Amino acid sequence: MKLFLDGKIHPLHEAYVQHLGGIRPEDGWESRGLSGHNLQRDEFDKLTQQSRQGFNELVIDKPRFKATMDRLMSLYQSLKAGGTIPEAAGLNHPEIHLVIGFMRTGGTYLFKQLMESCGLDHHRFLQKMTHDSLPSYHLCVTEFAQSHALELSLELAEYCQWLQDCWPQDTPLIQKRIGYGHDIPRFNTLFGGQPHWWVTLRDPSWAIDSFFKMENMDPNNNQHFPPFWQMAVSRFGEQSAEEWMQKPNYQKALDGWSMYHLDMFRGLASLDPSRYTFIPFERTAEMADAGPKSLDFSGFNYSDKPRPDYFDAKVQNQAIDRVLKGIDPKFHAQLEAYRA
What we know:
Elements: E1 2-5, E2 8-11, H1 14-20, H2 25-32, H3 41-60, H4 62-80, H5 85-89, E3 96-100, H6 107-117, H7 127-130, H8 149-166, E4 173-176, H9 184-190, E5 196-201, H10 204-215, H11 232-236, H12 241-245, H13 249-268, E6 276-280, H14 313-324, H15 332-336
Parallel strand pairs: 3-4, 3-5, 5-6
Antiparallel strand pairs: 1-2
């Protein structure tokens, strides 16, 4: 389903189609699993078909569909004009918690514990609305902010409509979105200027290794990598696109890690320190009372283990140094801990 708005065609996000298509949140979480390592592809594809069928049934019901789209357009116009997500969604509480951090750094576990601390069962809320799907990743990256501003307003309007329909009033709002880390000042404003940012950190060698296993990627190959990593060519200007493409996926992933952490720490520098909390993966069990919420980390188990066979200490240290050179020294200790 696509909409024609302000002279452009915009697709509706899959999370919104699932919401309007009547997908049970529990089924979405079951098909994915909490960690993402056990994705049930057949069940996931079945849910996609069910959501599209349910959405098409809504479209056929013209009065109900028109009322739904009218609400969406009202939210879109509000956000486009500079309104915030809490204002547009009609949330009457100021407490918002956003979880960011590079992939495979413990953010999903943290998200689950935050939900539990607020008396919420994450299974009751659509995974694609609450957890790393909406807004689309490229809309979170600073380079695309201006050219895709209308698309972002539409996706956030879809999110706000879901909040109106599904999020309990007088309950803290919680969302995990890795992409927000690329442009914290912009999303801090969109969430009303007062969210608390929970920031997960982890030794990059293990975060990347976990990602490779989840995506069944060969770290020594140079193909089948997330397209976003290629932005390192323009970001760092150290190699031509052709030279960069020949790098093994392990080194490409470290480029992605560097880009993310540069953006994230630069964004955090714009906030008062009381507005963010670091949760290092290796010390999660010690961090239960580190932030404004007391969290139950008693079920978290961590033990040291040898780094992967393809690990290269020199390359990892270079990735860390690249970030340290571009961020406030007050954050250096957070990354120095991962120097090999």
